[in-house]
Each structure stands twice: as C-alpha cells, then as structure tokens.
C-alpha cells in the first residue's frame, strides 16, 4: 500500500509539474570584423544593419532604407557582379546561408534576418528584413 501511495504521489507530481522546455538554440557566432577591402553597412551609415554584413570598399549608396525591420541599399558602384562575388565570399563568414544564387542575384538568411541581392545594368540592391514569415 505504501508503494501505491508513493506511486500516486509521483504521478500527481508529474502531472502538475511544468513541462520541460528545450533550451533555446543559441545564435550563431557572427564575425563583426570587416574583411580586408570591405566596408560594413554600419560604416556606410546603416544604423540597423545586422553586424557582420559588409560590401566592397568603394561602394556608393544612392538610395537607402534604414529601419529596424528593413535595411535596403541601392548601389551604383562598384558593378553589381563585383558586389555579388563579394557577398558570395563574405556572407557565409558573417553567419548567413545563401539559399539561392543565379544571374548574380542571391537569397540568404541568418535568423532573424532574411536577405536578397539583385542587379540591373547600372544598379544593384541589397535588402535585409526581419518582418517576413519563414519560408
């Protein structure tokens, strides 16, 4: 009888106990070091750009959006193909995963950020957002 009482007490305690929550996954380590030959988006004046995102030195921003949930830069220098090559090399170093790459356009992410880069004949644009639903 004593065993049955102990078992009932144990079961009641288990039923009323707070369920075990898994520990949150820590954010990946992000290098805030700007690669040689580059400039961080923050150095370009983007207050809300995620740390570690850089562009080639000599980048000229002609239009900008700098919000907590959306950072966008339209560039007219250097050539978009050069910026695409830079991003292919350096986004992974900043903890981003490139998920699509074609015609010098890229899609990439690092939680909570999702990003895109694209080019035209004379312009290139990079955008980083935190307000989109995960795909």
Give the SSE map.
Layout: H1 2-16, E1 38-40, E2 54-56, E3 60-67, E4 70-77, H2 80-90, E5 97-102, E6 105-110, E7 113-119, E8 124-129
Antiparallel strand pairs: 1-2, 3-4, 4-8, 5-6, 6-7, 7-8
Task: Tell me about this structure.
The protein is α+β, with helices and mostly antiparallel strands and 135 residues long. It has a single domain, classed as 2-Layer Sandwich (TATA-Binding Protein), CATH 3.30.310. The chain is built from 2 helices and 8 strands. It has helices at 2-16, 80-90; strands at 38-40, 54-56, 60-67, 70-77, 97-102, 105-110, 113-119, 124-129. The protein has a 6-stranded antiparallel sheet, with helices on one face. A hairpin with a 2-residue loop joins strand 3 and strand 4 (70-77). It is globular, with a radius of gyration of 23 Å. The N and C termini lie far apart (56 Å).
